[in-house]
Amino acid sequence: MRTSAKAVILHDGQILLIRASWEDQECYFLPGGGQHARESLGDTVVREVDEETGLTVTVERLLWLREYIGANHDHPETEANTHRIEAIFLCTPTSDPGQLGGHAQDEVQTGLEWVPLGNIPAINLLPQTIRQPIASLTEVPQPQDTYLGDVA
After folding, report:
1. Which of 7, 11, 91, 120 is the most exposed, fewest CB within 10 Å of its CB?
2. Exposure string over 11-47, b if 16+ CB within 10 A, otherwise e
3. Which helix (H) or strand (E) covers residue 113, if one does?
4. Which Pfam families match (predicted)?
5. How far apart are CA 104 and CA 49, in angstroms?
6. What is the 3-state secondary structure (H, E, C) of 56-85?
C-alpha cells in the first residue's frame, strides 16, 4: 500500500498543474507524491510541491481522500497488487507563484502550468475523477464528500 499527498494550489482563479507525458499521452497531474516514514501527510505535500514546482505552500485543509485499488479498475491483471491512498489538500502559495522550477521533478514531468479553473473539465487531468470536484471549486462552496472512494 502506498500513501501520498497531492496539492490543489490555487492563485488568481487558476490551479497549478504538472504537465506530463505518461503512457503515450499528454496529460496533467496535481503536484505531490509519496509519503516518507515518520512524515505527516501535510509535511509530505509541502515537500513534494517544493521538489516538483519550486513553490513554498501553506496547507489550508484536506479536500478529498482518494483510494485506488488496481484490481477493481482498467488493468486488473497488471495492477492487481496496486493499492494507493491519496490525501488531496487545498494549498496556498507563500512564495512567488511566477517563479516555478522544481529541483526533483518526476520523470514523466514535462512542465508546469497555471490553468484557469474553468478549463479543468476540458483538459486531460488525471485521474479523471477529480476534474469535476476541482472545477466546482469556482462555485459557491457546497458541502462535498471528502472520501471519494475507490476511484480511477
Report:
1. 11
2. eeebbbbbbbebeeeebbbbbbbebeeeeebeebbbb
3. strand 109-116
4. NUDIX
5. 10
6. CEEEEEEEEEEEEEHHHCCCCCCCCCCEEE
Q: Which residue has the cell 479523471?
A: 128
Domain map (residue ranges) of the chain: 2-143
Encode pLDDT of 75-90 as tens digits: 667 767 778 899 999 9
| Cα separation values, 55 from 85, 92, 94, 100, 145, Å | 24, 10, 8, 7, 28
Q: Is 21 helix (H, G, I), strand (E, B) or coil?
A: strand
Domain 2-143: which CATH number of 3.40.50.720, 3.40.350.10, 3.90.79.10, 3.90.1170.40: 3.90.79.10
b (16+ CB within 10 A) / e for 120-133: beeeebbeeebbeb
Contact 63, 52 (CB under 8 A): no
Cβ atoms 55, 49 nearer than 8 A:
yes
Q: Pairing mode, if any, of strands 83-93 and 57-69? A: antiparallel
Query: CB count, 10 Å around CB of 60?
Result: 12
Predicted TM-score (pTM) above 0.90: no
